[in-house]
From TrEMBL:
Family: Belongs to the beta/gamma-crystallin family.
Species of provenance: Chiloscyllium punctatum
Protein name per UniProt: Beta/gamma crystallin 'Greek key' domain-containing protein
Pfam family, one: Crystall
InterPro entries: Beta/Gamma-Crystallin (IPR050252), Beta/gamma_crystallin (IPR001064), G_crystallin-like (IPR011024)
């Protein structure tokens, strides 16, 4: 999965394959404005350590946070779903 600091896949990008308990510690930003899920299913959490509102991410392109149903671009953590 690739996350971006700006809408439409702009700005700084980081690619992840593993869980991330704190987006800020790894990305140095609290906001994820766009995302490209290339493989697997992921859950975004509103707060660090997998707390708060959750967003289910399927493979695909999310050009802005409203595409995944977010009320804001703030994402505190995320993890890959391993069991369905």
């Amino acid at each position: 999965m690739r996350i971006y600091e700006r809408p439409d896949f702009g700005g700084q990008m980081m690619e992840f394959m593993d869980d991330c308990p704190s987006v800020y510690d790894r990305f140095r930003y609290r906001d994820i404005h766009s995302c490209h899920v290339m493989d697997g299913y992921w859950i975004f959490y509103e707060h660090p350590n997998y707390r708060g509102r959750q967003y289910f991410m399927r493979p695909g392109e999310y050009r802005r946070y409203s595409d995944w149903g977010g009320y804001s671009s703030t994402i505190g953590s995320f993890r890959r779903m391993r069991d369905f």
